[in-house]
Amino acid sequence: MTIKELVTRSRAAQNVIAAYSQEKIDEIVRILAKVVYDNAEPLAKLAAEESRMGVYEDKVTKNRGKARILWYGLKGKKSVGILEHDKDAGITIVAKPMGVIGAATPCTNPVVTPMCNAMFAVKGGNSIIIAPHPRGKQCARRLAELYYGQFDKLGVPRDIFLVIEEPTIDLSSQLMASVDVVIATGGGAMVKSAYSSGRPSFGVGPGNVQGLIDNDVDFGETAQKLVQSRIFDNGIICSGTQTIIADKTNFTRVIDAFKKNGAFYLDDPAGVDKFRAALFPDGKINKDSVGQSMTAVAKLAGVEIPPGTKCVILKPPKYGKGEDLSREKMCPVMTAYEYDNWEHAVQIACENLLCEGAGHSVDIQSNNRAHIEYAALKLPVSRILVNQICTSMNGGSFQNSLSPTTTLGCGSWGNNSISENLSYYHLFNKSQIACVKPAWNQPDDEEIFG
User: Exactly one of 238, 350, 390, 410 is catalytic; which is it?
Assistant: First the structure.
């Protein structure tokens, strides 16, 4: 089937649901989440087998967790018809669909990203066409099959959720140029293609989450959080914490806490060099390391690690540009740096982000509000997550008020159009009815300029 035919079918279906009530729209959005929740295990199994990366058990957790938080975050939110009426301002806001959404989705999240994007699209009265990564096409097809069974029961047109069954770069580019709005969650080339499509687009930037550890936290609890953040799904989540930036006076205590939580610390220059060469041959990330187990990555590097090692912590000789290990490592490997004072900690994080990952996020473990705000003022990131597990909470959780999502905007730093978590409110148009304000008056020049 051609892209033109897919878009024609999608647009016809979108015209149908555009007339649905808020209650009917929400019924569909709920089903989009519930299907993944109910089928979390088989979908996780398929994702692990097809993508050949990640951890089955973590994918089950991810499927259930994202289905829960996304639906809970959308439940009860208005997105159809009149959204609000401000009598004093004389403004009424009306929501209207954007049309057909095209979504390029990655093999790192071949189930929850299509689910999330579909939920946001349909919440705004839109239809969606998924362009999956080739190593995620079976997941997208299976998801469509499961959705269609539920759509039929609801009397909803199946074509509100369509999939490019045999995806290619060319077909994805054609889709982006043919739909009304594009969401691109994937590599830099795909995001660049989205922004070059001539259509309104929402893309993401690469992650390289810096982990800043203050002196006023429990190092054991902190190590537990950061290790969990780094190893989840074998490190393929963009919000996984990449570094340990700790005070030099407590550095040994911090590393000992990580060791007690399953980390293997390596500061031997020869060993560090082996991992650098294995992870970044010719300065580019080794695809054979992405999403692989710690055992497999260590074997790739030719370094022996103790049985049961959860992650490796490397101490490179420098940070920032010119040090590949300062970049995003999509496997259970972290880097460690010592700081002299908090300003120095923020400087290390900043230089690593300018190397890669500007605009994304930082993971701060601190109870010092002044330190947290200093980092927030100085660092080029869209999210500053405090005292949480970044990989599972940066995209919204029950513990914070970030919008639940799988698409994290990185602002102009990451060449993105938004610097917040993508949500449903990005995917509908707003019309404003502007009436005369009931008690308006024109101020005199003294009041205006005085």
Answer: 238
Task: With 0.85 as the threshold, say if the pTM is over it.
Answer: yes
- Place domain 3-204+417-433 in its CATH homologous superfamily: Aldehyde Dehydrogenase; Chain A, domain 1 (3.40.605.10)
**Closest by CA position to 413, among listed 131, 118, 205, 142:** 205
What residue ranges of the chain are covered by domains with CATH 3.40.605.10? 3-204+417-433
CA 24 remoteness from chain centre: 28
Dump pLDDT digits (tens) for 106-163: 999 999 999 999 999 999 999 999 999 999 999 999 999 999 999 999 999 999 999 9
Annotated catalytic, 238? yes
DSSP helix/strand/coil, 432: strand
Distance, C-alpha 171 to centroid of its chain: 24
If phi > 0 it is left, if psi is from -120 to 50 it is alpha, else beta; for residue 168 that is beta
- The closest alpha carbon to 427, from 30, 3, 122, belongs to 122
Nearest CA to 363 out of 325, 390, 332, 331 is that of 390
Both structure tokens of 349:
């994080």
Amino acid at 324: D
Hunting for tokens 């020869």 — which residue is that? 270
DSSP state of 25: H
Angle at 42 between CA 37 and CA 44, to 5 degrees: 75
| H/E segment holding residue 105 | strand 100-105
Helices and strands per DSSP (H, E), number in the chain: 16, 15
Q: Which CATH class is domain 210-403?
A: alpha beta
Q: Which two tokens stand for residue 32?
A: 């989009």
Please tell me the distance from the alpha carbon of residue 353 to that of residue 345, in angstroms, as a whole number.
12
Digit-coded pLDDT (tens) for 331-386: 999 999 999 999 999 999 999 999 999 999 999 999 999 999 999 999 999 999 99
Where are the CATH 3.40.309.10 domain residues in the chain? 210-403
Contact indicator for 341, 187 with CB cutoff of 8 Å: no
